[in-house]
Amino acid sequence: MASRSSMAGISCFIVMSLYTLQLSADWSARERVELGWHDEFQLDTGWIPEPREQSHEAGVVFHSKGAIFSVPASNNPVSWTRTTNPIWPNPFRYIEIRYRMEPSGNRSPSVSFLLTDDSTGPITPGALNPENPIAGDHEVRVGPLPCDQNRAIYDLEDLFPSDRIGRITLQIIAGDVPAKVYLERLAFWSTDPRKPSPGTAQVATMPFFAKEESAPAEVPSRKGEWEPLELPDHGTIASTWLASALGTSPDWPDGTEIQRRGIGFRLNPMEQAAASTRMMETDTIEIPGTWRGSELALLLATRMTGSDARAFGSATGQPRTEITSPHRLAVRLEYEDGSTTTHLPWSVGHGRWTVAKLPDAYIVPLDCDKTLRHI
């Protein structure tokens, strides 16, 4: 790691595997913090018909307002399945479905979702190991959806038997007339989206910034100076939502300057405390600019859900407590000459390549002979 420091500190929290006063902005922040996975059905993200050789009368069309699933008259189910990255129903227990059916009323189709952890083995007849798909419950049916509504929400607590969801199947039975099902959203929430979020009202005593009990493992050089950078205005969340995501007190530190591990950071106002990724899939925080220096300092925090346990079942493995792989968090640097480098941040406090939960200082090395234009 470069030791001469003339490059900047960025006040940046990333709520990862994470998350002003107008209503729309507040709802956007809630989605960043409490929405674990969703599909808006605007693009075909892998909904595969089952069986593959469906009737030519069955089909699906995706557009900007959602998807239209069409099925022929039949008392047999027509299905589409999507395999997902793990969805963790323990922290995200509420499933929201926005939809519409044709025809409506007594002749409306029967619409259900089948959730499964996608366990495939090892298959051992008679064995009771939890990942054995023969050994226990690995799926649950949600529905049929009410035919006289356009939004349904189900609480999966005590309903879904496994610790993860790996596959979602849509099943439609049209009955004696052809049917269409319009799907606008399928989403997993940590709180009931019909109600005000309790997250910002929860009482927590843990401060945003834990007390530094020991000297940093590697103190940045004093030969240079840290130049604070500005976060982008878009994609930020207020300190109350950041506290909800991290389980800390919502009390934002007084003043605009803070020292962490010997590095000075400039904090944003509490209404725009942190730039944040979303929880689902891959997301980015982009910071354009023009800078030169030898090190980039980041003030990062992460929200991690689920576990790395390979076993499937109701018993959740050890929860994730740190990020040690650039496949999960990486800082990509783009220079004016077109070259790029990608790094897992270096923890100043731990003295190794890792990112933990609570806000702390991290270092990314820079090429001091080049001008940086995009982070």
Descriptive overview:
The protein has about 375 residues and is mainly beta. Helices cover about 5% and strands about 30% of the residues. The chain is built from two helices and 23 strands. It has helices spanning about 25-35, 240-245; strands at about 10, 35-40, 50, 60-65, 65-70, 80-85, 95-100, 110-115, 140, 150-155, 165-175, 180-190, 235, 255-260, 265, 275, 290, 295-300, 330-335, 340-345, 345, 360-365, 370-375. Strands 2, 4, 5, 7, 10 and 12 form a six-stranded antiparallel beta sheet that branches. A five-stranded antiparallel beta sheet has the order 3-6-11-8-9, with no helix packed on it. Strands 1-18-22-21 form a four-stranded mixed beta sheet, with no helix packed on it. The two termini are about 20 Å apart. The model is unreliable at about 1-25 (pLDDT under 50).
List keywords for this structure.
375 residues; mainly beta; six-stranded antiparallel β-sheet; five-stranded antiparallel β-sheet; 2 helices; 23 strands; 5% helix; 31% strand; elongated; disordered N terminus
Class based on secondary structure composition and strand pairing: mainly beta
Q: What kind of sheet is the major sheet? A: 6 strands, antiparallel
**Strand segment tally:** 23
Q: List the total number of helices.
A: 2
Beta-strand content estimate: 25-35%
Low-confidence segments, given as residue ranges, are: 1-24
- Shape descriptor: elongated
The ordered string of helix (H) and strand (E) elements is: EHEEEEEEEEEEEEHEEEEEEEEEE
| Proportion in helices | under 10%
Distance between the termini: 18 Å
> In angstroms, what is the radius of gyration?
24 Å
User: Would you tell me the overall average pLDDT?
Assistant: 78
